[in-house]
Amino acid sequence: MQEYATEQIRNIAMVSHSGAGKTMLGEAFLFFTKATTRMGNVGEGNTLSDFEEEEQRRGLSLSTSVLPIEYNKHKLNLLDTPGAPDFVGETISALSVSDAALVVVDSVAGVQVGTELAWATCDKFNLPRFVLVNRMHREAADFEKAKNSVAQLTDKRLIPVQLPWGQGGSFQGLIDLLVMKAFPVGGGAAVDIPADLAEAAKTARMQLVEAAAEGSDKLLEKYLESGELSGDEIMQGLLQIGRGSAVHPATHFDDCDVFQLARFDFH
User: How far is Cα 28 from Cα 35, in angstroms, rounded to an integer?
Assistant: First the structure.
């Protein structure tokens, strides 16, 4: 691993209630960035973050692990924290040294006790957050219900940067609102957004553009003139908003495009 200047390093805590899928998410990040050649599995006890014997026996994280990955000329130190409330001290410690938090929410259960504790700690440390609704393949998965449960935790707007392509047994991938393309599960090539989801994607894209336009007078002026912003302009607008706000779910932690890593359903 090459050396990185301080401004190219991000410490990002992955937080959630126990069982929302943080550890498998970390495995997928490692695999996607080619830090590993295969993904481990919690059930098989061979994930990199749950390396302690007791963690493997229980099938859950008991302490925070650091997963270093390299992406877009940045080094991301992902802190995989325990989700069980009994180990909330580990979560607090991880968040106290993090630049931002990735809040993982189960698509069926929505916000749970561990989620609430983690969110409150993020508030305490004034950390920007990105919310990922995970495990969309599960029966009874409900993206809107999960997102709305998060909305109950904050008075900030939740602005999606991606939408699910189906859910439950019909889950096929994600729709990226920055490039307005659909990406199948597992990292396949981008395809056109399915016709039955095109209107919902268009509406969500407009909300994203409007939010980004608030980031600067220049972007607002362009939006008022043309009604549109490019993907890069959206990211810059969200960055400006994130710098001025304690919470913004679309925060991408400066210019390293973390949310581009979250295109897959990690279960």
Answer: 10
pLDDT in tens, the chain (267 residues): 688 898 899 999 999 998 898 988 898 889 888 898 888 888 777 777 777 777 777 777 788 999 999 988 899 999 999 888 888 999 999 999 999 999 999 999 999 999 999 999 999 999 988 899 999 999 999 999 999 999 999 988 888 999 999 999 999 999 999 999 999 987 778 999 999 999 999 999 999 999 889 888 999 999 898 988 998 898 888 877 766 543 344 333 333 333 333 433 333
Ordered domains of the chain (ranges, CATH) = 1-156+251-261 (3.40.50.300), 158-244 (no CATH)
